[in-house]
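Suppose you are handed a protein chain with no further information: no name, no annotation, nothing but its sequence. What can you learn? This example shows the usual starting point.
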Amino acid sequence: MRTIDLSKFQAKPGLSGFINNLQGLMSYGYSWQESRKNQEELVEILGSVLGNECVLLRDVNIPKVNRPIPLVLITPATVMVINPKSQQGFFRAEGKLWGELGRNDKYRPSPHNLIRETWLYQKTIEGYFKQHNFSAPMDRGVMIFVSPETVVESIRPRVRIIQADGIKNFARELSIAKPVFSDIDFKAAVNLLTHPKLPDKTKQKKSPPPELMEPLPLSEPLAKVDEGITKAARKVNFTRREWIIIGVLSGLLIIVLIVLIVLVTLFS
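A reasonable first move is to predict its three-dimensional structure. Written in structure tokens, the prediction is:
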């Protein structure tokens, strides 16, 4: 299995790695760091089963989406969004609801709905492909728990739930699935996700040139008004030199008026 890390804050040795990790925490919070650790565990398990015909993309950044998609697996048969988790305990996945077992041995809604989170990741990829007019076979989003201390009771959940002991069987199912992608479409899917971009704006229909557009007919009253405005404009259409002369004369006239007012005031 080929793995491509698309994270803006990839782990590196030394100071640069520490800075990248700090920037990732500041941008996405602690859950991002936890997701990165879960990804590494899952990559190791899936890589032991899936061959090089499969491509696993880490931290896929879709334009105008605030958070990266943790994992997108592209196989010859499908494109699959994977949300790796490590929460421990007893949980219930029922339809759109995600609950956790409380102290009174009853399930209660979890403050963070992991089913909705996984479903939104899937819809984000589907919408991105649709924007680019690209059709790809996609399964439901998959939530995979890497911790063996996680038990999930599933009742027709909106997304697929895989527990730690079922990861390898899940990978084997993918490895023997009937290929659907052509080579061209497979490469197109990988390229769209590894080099994310906004779709080209549709070209708007251009208006015909002004000389080809017929002028709207004026009604008789409007025509007379238009003719009067045209004649008035011709009468006041002075040249630049004439406007300067008019301005100078107007200035002199104002000065003369001021002097006259001052003289009248003094001798009155």
